Every structure is written in C-alpha cells, then in structure tokens.
C-alpha cells in the first residue's frame, strides 16, 4: 500500500487516537478546556505525530474524513469530562469548504451529547479566504459554537479577515509567547489588539512560570503549553479535568 492508502485504512480501522492538552485559567490555575490533537498508532512505525501525516491528509483530501472522525470522537470524549471544560478542535480549510460541514458539526455534537457552547473550532489564518468560509463560520456561530484563530501571527494574510470573519478566540503562536519576558512590543500590541476586538487571548507554548506570569500581567486570562501539561490520551485526563495546580 502507498502512504495515501495506508492513511485511508487507518481512518477506517480506527488507528487514529486523540490526545488532549489542557488550556488553563492563568489566574485560577484551573483547567478551562482541552485541545484535541490527533496521533496515528501506526502498526509498524509506532505512534506518529500530526506533522507526519496531516500534510499528506491535506494533499489527498483525506483531511475531510479524518477531521470528521476527530470531531465525532472528541465530542464523545468531552461529553464525559467532569467540570465541563471546553473542547477545542482543529479544523482544516478543506473541511470548512465542505457543503455539509455545519450539519456534520451539529450531528457530532448531538450524537456525542456535547453542548455546542462547549465547542471551539480552531481555524488558521490561511483558511480564511472568501465569502464561502465567512458564511460557514456565521452558520457555525448560529449553532452556538465558538471560533478561534490558531497560530495567530504566523500566516501571510493581512488583518482584514478580522473584520470579515466572526471570531471569539485568538491563539497567539508560541513564537510570540517566547518573548513574553522580554518586554516585547509586538506581543503587547497583539494583546492590545485582541482585547480591543473583544477576543479571548490564548498564548500557546508556555514552558516557563515566568512566561505565564508575564502573560497574565499583560492581560491574558488563559494559556496553554508544556508548563501546564503535554497532550495526553483521554484516559489520563481523569483528575486533571477538574483541577491542575
Ligand atoms: O500535536 P502537535 O503539536 O504535534 O500538532 C502539530 C500540528 O498538527 C498542530 O499545528 C495542529 O494544529 C495540527 N493538528 C493536530 N491535530 C489536528 C486535527 O485533528 N486536525 C487538523 N486539521 N490539524 C491537527
Ligand atoms: O498548531 P497548533 O497550535 O494546533 O498545535 C499545537 C502544537 O504545539 C502541538 O503539536 C503541541 O504538541 C505543541 N505544543 C503545545 N505546547 C507546547 C509547548 O509548550 N512547547 C512546544 N515547543 N510545543 C508545544
Ligand atoms: Mn491548534
Ligand atoms: Na496553534
């Protein structure tokens, strides 16, 4: 089998697994949500990270069935979490373009038993291109789902999409988080812009306590990174779904 066929089989045979990384409230030291991050339990090569198969999935269009599986699986997992933390799921541009995408999201929520208000969909700047996407995002919002811009600041797009696309959350790429302790004017400007647009800010890739302190002082309420937890399988969330310290 070639790599595409192997991935296709993996989706059908449930060789994919979801890991979850906590998103924490920096003030309360408590889990606010989890981001679902897909892995592939390859029968021969072991556990593969998304970097080893998401690009292939995007090139071949397999990202559509893969993403559908992720959404359904994650909604089912999240419905059982104690304390009702929210669920954040990455969505590729090709998924947004599917005519039935909004219905698929609604079905995943209904079948999994998850309230729409607990779902955040993460899209990248590069998938925000036209009227079609804007319409899809509006429809998702009408379902009660919230929307996040992922890896903010790393795309090549202008900021004009912030006017055209309804957004709730801005995930600040870890390349900016790294400068948190250096009195970075760029990071301050990103936070100020996010705040003035009424967006929830989530700096990613927080690894040091000093970074968390600096980001909280800047006005970020939430954060994500290895300091608080690495992505782990759903079974290992028991306990941390309620509280981290
Ligand atoms: O887990 P890790 O940090 O290696 O993830 C690397 C990248 O893979 C991230 O940019 C993330 O957005 C992407 N990714 C992880 N899971 C999914 C998924 O379910 N769907 C899509 N489209 N991308 C994902
Ligand atoms: O692109 P996206 O933000 O969806 O993917 C998150 C990726 O960042 C995952 O692959 C995750 O494993 C990785 N990640 C999460 N926290 C940290 C961190 O603190 N440091 C580093 N280097 N990577 C992280
Ligand atoms: Mn993400
Ligand atoms: Na990101």
TrEMBL record:
Signal peptide: none annotated. GO terms for molecular function: cyclic-guanylate-specific phosphodiesterase activity. It comes from the Bacteria. Keywords: Membrane, Transmembrane, Transmembrane helix. Residues 1-245 form the EAL domain. The keyword Transmembrane helix applies. This is EAL domain-containing protein. It comes from Solirubrobacter ginsenosidimutans. The lineage of its organism: Bacteria, Bacillati, Actinomycetota, Thermoleophilia, Solirubrobacterales.
């Amino acid at each position: 089998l070639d790599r595409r066929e192997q991935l296709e089989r993996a989706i059908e045979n449930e060789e994919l697994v979801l890991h979850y990384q906590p998103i924490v409230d920096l003030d309360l030291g408590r889990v606010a949500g989890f981001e679902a991050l897909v892995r592939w339990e390859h029968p021969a090569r072991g556990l593969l990270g998304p970097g080893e198969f998401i690009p292939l999935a995007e090139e071949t269009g397999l990202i559509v069935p893969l993403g559908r599986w992720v959404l359904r699986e994650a909604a089912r997992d999240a419905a059982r979490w104690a304390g009702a933390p929210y669920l954040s799921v990455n969505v590729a541009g090709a998924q947004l373009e599917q005519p039935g995408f909004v219905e698929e999201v609604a079905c995943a929520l209904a079948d999994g038993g998850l309230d729409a208000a607990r779902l955040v969909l993460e899209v990248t700047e590069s998938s925000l291109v036209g009227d079609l996407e804007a319409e899809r995002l509006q429809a998702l919002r009408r379902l009660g789902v919230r929307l996040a811009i992922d890896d903010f600041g790393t795309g090549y797009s202008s900021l004009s999409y912030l006017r055209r696309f309804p957004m709730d959350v801005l995930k600040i790429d870890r390349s900016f988080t790294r400068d948190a302790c250096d009195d970075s004017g760029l990071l301050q400007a990103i936070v100020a812009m996010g705040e003035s647009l009424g967006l929830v800010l989530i700096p990613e890739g927080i690894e040091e306590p000093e970074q968390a302190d600096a980001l909280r002082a800047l006005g970020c309420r939430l954060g994500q990174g290895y300091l608080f937890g690495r992505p782990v399988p759903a079974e290992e969330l028991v306990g941390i779904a309620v509280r981290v310290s």
